[in-house]
Specification:
The protein is α+β, with helices and mostly antiparallel strands. The chain contains nine helices and eleven strands. It has a seven-stranded antiparallel β-sheet. A four-stranded antiparallel β-sheet has the order 5-10-7-8, with no helix packed on it. α2 packs across α3.
Amino acid sequence: MPSIKEKYDAQGFVIVPGLIPSEDTKELKEACNRAIKKTRNGEWPHRRTVGKQFPPFDNDNPDSWGVQHVMHPDLGEPAFAKWYTSDGLVGTAAQLLDCKEETLQMELFNLLINPESHDFALRWHRDDVREDATEEEERTALGIWTHGVQWNTALYTDSCLYVVPKSHKTPRSDGQRVHSMTQAPPKDPLDMPGAIQVTLQPGDTVIYNSNILHCGAYNSKHQRATLHGCMGDANGGSTRARNVLQHGLEWMQGDDFRQTLVNNPRGNKMLDLLIAMKESVQGEVGYSQSG
């Protein structure tokens, strides 16, 4: 059987069960429930709003499809940082990136949830390649996108993610370009040539190259609480800066957040590497996508 790294390298994604220790599942579910409740009742302002696919997010719609910055000290949920820096998750990321655990930098950690009143979908996209990129621009961007992994970890059955396997290595075909050149979400994601639907059972994690062609479709009637984050290899320098910093991570440089990691040496080291990347970037990073 091929290893998870061989599958990841070949397909651009891999499903890994059991990255949350069984004794931590209850704690994470309870933390998610509190975070979702605060977001829905307006106590937590950092959210992904229905009608807005990419940052910067706004408050034009009261319905939400995501909770941002779940490690933020003001949210007060230490379970999230505990799991983000856990042996299982960090070890798997290092294995897939073929790097040492000591070079992994802290990046984003959010929560994907079902909207309450609206079905909602994201358009087909690559996280850090615009839809109007030429074939050559696309090929160049894919060539450098090897220093990070992104993941969805389902706490409940989740069939929201669609991907095009192997598209992390090759520019879009003419047919794929047609389906990804629009700002509108797809009526049926499986109309995209080569697309498949990814179904996760509770506890499963899909880890993927975020420049694989992918989209998400959210059903307001199906409960969703899916841990959504990314982690990078600091050896990539600033290649991931825009994708990460566009979400607004100034709070991660503050003393309050550092204090939450006082008993977490690994977390402190990962944060140091993120801050070093941030300080290496000159000027505004801008946004990867619009809409």
